[in-house]
Amino acid sequence: MLVLSNLGVNVTGLIAGLGFGGIAIGLAAQGVFADLFAALAIIFDRPFRLGDSISYDKGRARAPSRRSA
Q: In Å, how far from its chain's centre is CA 45?
């Protein structure tokens, strides 16, 4: 930053631009990370096992897991 400032580059504009760019990238990646953490929660919670029978009965859970209770 000091080198750019000594060369006559407007450093405050550069810092502001990087700040706005970071906010834009963070907002764009928000959905991706939400889906990733949801998938990891399902994988580590393991609510279903191989061979389990899953039925839907008017929106009620028959045996909730620790995470959903």
A: 18
pTM of the model: 0.45
- The residues with which 57 forms a beta bridge, in sequence order, are 60
Query: Alpha helices of 1-69 — where are they, by DSSP H?
Result: 2-6, 11-45
d(CA 67, CA 29): 25
**Both structure tokens of 15:** 């810092």
Backbone torsions φ then ψ of 57, nearest 5 degrees: -125, 85
8-67, pLDDT tens digit by residue?
Answer: 888 888 888 888 888 999 999 999 999 999 888 888 887 777 777 776 666 655 565 565
